[in-house]
Amino acid sequence: MNTIKHIGILSSGGDAPGMNAAIRAVVRTAIYHGLQVSGIYRGYQGLVDNSINTMHSSSVSNIIQSGGTLLKTARCRDFLNKAGREKARQNLQEHGIDALVVIGGDGTFRGAKVFGDEFGFPVIGIPGTIDNDLYGTDNTIGYDTALNTIVNAVDKIRDTATAHNRLFFIEVMGREAGFLALSGGIASGAEVVLVPEIEDDYKQLHDFLKSGYKKGKNSSIVLVSEGDEIGGALRIAENVENTYPEYDVRVTILGHLQRGGAPSAYDRVSASRMGVSAVNALLDGKAGIMVGLVNHCIAHTSFGDALKHKKPLNAHLLEIMKILSI
Ligand code: F6P
Ligand 1 center to residue 86 CA distance, Å? Predict the structure, then answer.
């Protein structure tokens, strides 16, 4: 029999557009099922610091359309220590919270797994990060919005690149994963993408630079994933400028603007689905899992599996990039 009566919700790690839609879904689903729900502020730090408030349906009114996170977020060092986690457990007990929903990326789930295992506390994860680097879900919340932000920015840079016949290196986020760069490259018609997962892409860049100039291309865009093994866009651009003085090279680092803005419709719907499913999973007695979307259907993956496996880049997308950029 289900014994959960009071759910705590938090967002942790880097914010991602759509986190608010997920928070709204969790709060309203909990209330729909007659449960109490409390918001924990600044991720695990709020658990440790006892920054916890009751939430009502109206607490999440008018937030589905905004980026960032109503509950704020943080990367919490205290939670890495047993003493910090013990403090968090005491605070949860004091509030009568008997289950947690955490929204975030791999760091968030690592914390959730340790905490769940240590205290036998039910925790469900919702994948929220623009990087899309979590195994067990096709898309993480925020990825689609960030991708659209990148494409909008690259379209604008393409205008000026074409006007000046320039070669632009545009650096995008993604940490050690190239999902944003690869899909961003396909969607914006980039000539080359450099991603951490592919080792010989630097050679592809050189092949392109040798042939592109001869072909008389009047603009070229290279999307560089921030985690690329060769280095960031600035370093790569410097090397290229020295080797190919015939190119007029510029660099743009898109940076944190990729993390903000109104979530796309896709992210809002995905976040709503995952939020509802997270509460339902707790009510079904599930714990220690991430709720994701695989082939458009809700899928559950244990934190252990989500953390153990590296999500590969889609081989079909890599092929498409290669074919379409000739
Ligand atoms: O994980 C999301 C992300 O935006 C990464 O793409 C990026 O490397 C990192 O967070 C930046 O983190 P911070 O905002 O702490 O500088």
Answer: 28
Q: How many residues does the chain have?
A: 326
Exposed/middle/buried for 146, CB within 10 Å: 0-12, 13-18, 19+?
A: buried
Q: Which residue's CA is the closest to the ligand 1 atom numbered 10?
A: 14
**CATH architecture assigned to 6-142+263-308:** 3-Layer(aba) Sandwich (3.40)
Q: How confident is the model at residue 9 (pLDDT cuts 50, 70, 90)?
A: very high
Domain with CATH 3.40.50.460 in the chain: 144-259
Residue 14 Cβ contacting ligand 1 at under 6 Å: yes
Clarify whether 159 is annotated catalytic: no
> Does the structure show a pLDDT above 90 at 21?
yes
131-172 per-position pLDDT tens digit: 999 999 999 999 999 999 999 999 999 999 999 999 999 999
Mean pLDDT in residue range 274-286: 98
CATH architecture, domain defined by 144-259 = 3-Layer(aba) Sandwich (3.40)
Return residue ranges of the chain for CATH 3.40.50.450.
6-142+263-308
Q: What's the rounded mean pLDDT across residues 286-303?
A: 98
Nearest to 132 by CA among 267, 252, 20: 267
- Among 15, 98, 106, 131, the active-site one is 131
